[in-house]
Design a protein that fits this description.
The structure is a homotetramer.
Chain A lengths: L13 E6 L3 H4 L11 H33 L2 E7 L11 H6 L23 E5 L4 H4 L2 H8 L3 E7 L1 H14 L3 E10 L3 H10 L5 E3 L1 H12 L3
Parallel strand pairs in A: 1-2, 1-4, 2-3, 4-5, 5-6
GO molecular function (chains A, B, C, D): hydrolase activity
Pfam family, one (chains A, B, C, D): Isochorismatase
Protein name (chains A, B, C, D): Ureidoacrylate peracid hydrolase
Chain lengths: ~220, ~220, ~220, ~220
């Protein structure tokens, strides 16, 4: 029995999950920002897009490449309804007003880290991917016990996924600088709140770890 | 509190679910019958295809039309992996050898009752739709409390769905002659085994009931 | 990856689950038979109690002893509400009229196979133990992958448990003569219906298998 | 369809859930604080126990009394294993070292708000009560749609419960001053992080609301 969370990744029993890195909320033209003028966008989300475009997405790309090279399953979840009108969404998303219609541009993973080949994509309509998809069932079928988490936004969908994954017995590795939310303070608070539920490493650390594994070190 | 299963359908809180009525097992060219010569197919599945094509599918069509007319949500589940290689399937499907690759012709609902518009389709990789999809979550979001069941095959995926739906608090109506399995005896045994878990009606009865509702009777 | 269901029990990853072997339905004084005169009980349930008392319970005892000796986790589920008035039961049990109040004699496992020491007991209020308990979560925490099933009644709670367990990736072994329902025909029909979901063995076979394991054969 | 979270409590479809208000972590002699000298306890947990004993528990008592008077279902979850040795616990709790043995004093709700009569108590072995109990199933059977949350500790088990409940379609009301964690800063950060998932009110506000309801205002 593993009695620590500080366990290095074993690729054959690991998956990398990108959370909500999709046009809706990761592209300046995404529906989440609809109706904002350019100056409003800059004022409200300037810090966010600067971090995202110049720091976080490049780290996600490195993480994705290293995971693929090491044979780690790469998976994606995105906010997307199963319908056009969104009637299948959670009450919470209906109240919030979120609806990413099935098949829409907003529901696509951003090009920079787009899925390739036979990688698995799970549309969801709630904050935690464990509530509105059957990811737990899929991970079991894949033989996955270790979950690497990267995505948006740190203190909402990312944090909910980490909490539930931990409770369900997965060993979770959060790649802290490959997650982002709307302010540094919110990001830092979330990391502190959930540090007891996961292992927290940087992209540099995890990529090095995966490269060592791939090289048979 | 409803204290009987003999409750007529209230369209606004009802859904019709077609189970596995897809090319894989409902078309003579489906992968389930691959490798069988025409005479082997006739010998082994002659009764099944005769019933299916001449009796059951026409009833499914009437059921679908009446449900749509009455404003009942029409949903579909099909056996289909989330991947081409089927690594996300249940251990059971791996043992059985079932793999309907993502996007394949085998995974499509047969043309006779194909989904239209914004109807919901849920790919699954286990016998019970409640285990390998998040249908329970979706039905809750839709406000569905009554589930009408039609599909294939009576004593496997259909029966498992009825058992789980009943346990989860849905009032289930099984349309007995719009379900089918590989022999009359197996069909009848299954109906008897689960008659305590659901209301069992014929297509004629349910279509009349839905027409009365739609007409405001 | 295991690609057969015919896998012998590995005790460290196995559990024996007794389903509903409790006073309610396995004792002539159980509430399920309340209101029946002695002659009515004999007429309606004479075959059942004869089989149960003279054949099935003795087999359950052998199964329990062999499992304990081999180090297999022994678990029990019983129909029992979390309340006295049963308001937490499934709609199905409310309709059926089943209520085994919390803490009642009816909810106890029969003395012949009573739990000992630190064995786990899960009260349930639905047909499938996977719907109204968190057994899947517990089995995961225990490291259980193989589930041995014995109990009552073959074509209802036992069959539902086997179907769900199979879908969830457990390798299920049904001990056919340590399960019982109200007629031989119903029992046999259920065994045939689910033979694709599990390995089916007799008590003699499984006890021999467990003894070999315990002896290091 | 409710399209706001600011919905007053309707007692017949509401439940009050107390989370982990048990001897283990809410009594100075609880196992969570084992091994600490009196001065260490004071230094590390002085603020916590002062808040708990002098402010939070009295508010919980008012909340409990008002809920009972209004006919709101009162429920409790506590950290408690199903076994003495805790082998059924989540991997997370095994790593953390938490084990509250079945039936132990540590697992009991503190006397100040002890359950009475037929109230429901759910032992759990994970952070979120939705992962290690079947509370979602029970709430459904009870007809509960609104969940009032109070308990310990704000940023762990309380926050996880609110996140999952929200995703599952419950309208959650967090009673902010009837929740507590180990510092004011952590408490405030958590409230901010989840304010989009629930309605947040004080004990005074909720008690007044419940009294109005009970009085038929």
């Amino acid at each position: 029995m593993t009695l620590t969370r500080e366990v290095p990744i074993l690729p054959l029993q690991a998956a990398l999950l990108f959370i909500d890195v999709q046009n809706f909320g990761a592209d300046r033209k995404g529906a989440e920002f609809a109706g904002l003028s350019e100056s409003e966008l800059e004022q409200k989300y300037g810090w966010y897009f600067d971090r995202l475009e110049n720091h976080v997405v490049p780290k996600m790309q490195r993480l994705q490449a290293a995971s693929r090279a090491a044979g780690v399953e790469v998976m994606y979840t995105t906010i997307e309804s199963l319908t056009l009108d969104g009637r299948d969404r959670s009450l919470d998303y209906k109240i919030t007003g979120f609806n990413v219609p099935k098949g829409s541009w907003d529901g696509k993973v951003i090009n920079a880290i787009a899925p390739v080949g036979d990688e698995i994509l799970l549309p969801k309509s709630s904050s935690s991917v464990f509530v509105s998809t059957h990811i737990d069932y899929i991970l079991r079928n894949l033989g996955v016990r270790q979950l690497i988490i990267s995505g948006l936004i740190t203190d909402q969908c990312v944090e909910s996924a980490i909490r539930d994954a931990c409770d369900l017995g997965y060993l979770v590795t959060q790649v802290t600088d490959a997650c982002l939310t709307y302010s540094q303070e919110r990001h830092d608070n979330s990391l502190r709140a959930i540090k007891g539920y996961c292992r927290q490493v940087t992209t540099d650390q995890l990529v090095a770890e995966l490269q060592d594994v791939a090289a048979g070190v």
